[in-house]
Design goal:
Two copies of one chain form a homodimer. Chain A is of the alpha+beta class. Chain A is built from ten helices and four strands; from the N terminus they run βαβαββαααααααα. In chain A, helix 1 links the parallel strand 1 and strand 2. Chain A is globular and about 45 Å long. Chains A and B meet through strand 4, helix 3, helix 4, helix 5 and helix 6 of A and strand 4, helix 3, helix 4, helix 5 and helix 6 of B. Chains A, B: It comes from Rhizobium tibeticum.
Amino acid sequence: MTEIVLYGYWRSSASFRVRIALQMLGLAYETVPIDLLASAHKDPNYLRINPQGLVPSLRIDGHILTQSLAIIEYLAETRPENGFLPDTAAGRQRVRALSYAVAMDVHPICNLNVVSHVVHLTGEEGARTEWMIKFIGSGLQALEKMLDDPTSGRFCFGDTPTMADFCLVPQVYNARRWGIELSTFPRVARIADACNAMPAFKAAHPDAAKR
Amino acid sequence: MTEIVLYGYWRSSASFRVRIALQMLGLAYETVPIDLLASAHKDPNYLRINPQGLVPSLRIDGHILTQSLAIIEYLAETRPENGFLPDTAAGRQRVRALSYAVAMDVHPICNLNVVSHVVHLTGEEGARTEWMIKFIGSGLQALEKMLDDPTSGRFCFGDTPTMADFCLVPQVYNARRWGIELSTFPRVARIADACNAMPAFKAAHPDAAKR
């Protein structure tokens, strides 16, 4: 049996996504914490694992994998019947589009190093919260509109969780952290609630990963 | 035969990626220009096609598809034997990771609306160039390190173009536009040159799309 090792940070959205996928699959894994606030991601030993200096990285099946969504696609392909992606090409396209609406259009813009640079440029610590509210808010608003679609159900796509939900939940966690009012995004909020009621999502939560 | 329609903007990296894929497949398509500078992406008619108000969108096979990489994955699945993604799960994981190193970790941070907001916050037009140089530069540096890998060849993965190259080339086009010196990224520059010599990449280039 291969030992699975997740290099991640408890509060990182990208790490959170991969934890959800691993928990959904019921895979046991060891965690190696990479403390972003202590710059552990810039340590030469970690850069040999992840040349980008990002979290997460996953050691599995004799590979070291990087990039959360590329990891989830790998898990979806190598552990089939998991439903992370739908059965049809159009369905998969839709789930990927919803995933990227978060993972490309919101999350990178609100990443620690980007927002810290904005604070540096403006010289105002308050710029951090304003930035988060603006870009998470507009991103979730766009996602809310995308979810007004017949393919949406109890979850982002149909009635079982997919990769899109693995992206939505960490983003909603972040939105709440920055005090963003979710009542204006009822579909997003409802799907997050449905996910958060599931044991796999609970086990993957930052509060559980922090311990 | 289904008519294929690409809604895009000549200078948009995401539109450029999809043009490369369509050209690589030899698919004929009609272009509907969405002029971002004239806010055509915020027109209610376009928002019905793309609720996020982003380019590109692709009308194909009776679907309207959004999100450039989700479109490319769809084309890869429905027009097989194209080599956009490798034959193995580990290979596909690698190509996706390289793609996301550009499409998630560089491109969104340098998007028009983000950088315009930085200019607004700082009140300095010069902040635009500084931002581009910083984030494109550090992103290409990370990509350069990732490409120091036995799976890299004439192209990002092996000796035929994949989705990763469709992401790399528009980012290099942008880097040059902002005056970023590519000699410090020799692998990136070499791969971009190999791509740019191919007819499909030439046909997809912004200068060709602008006409």
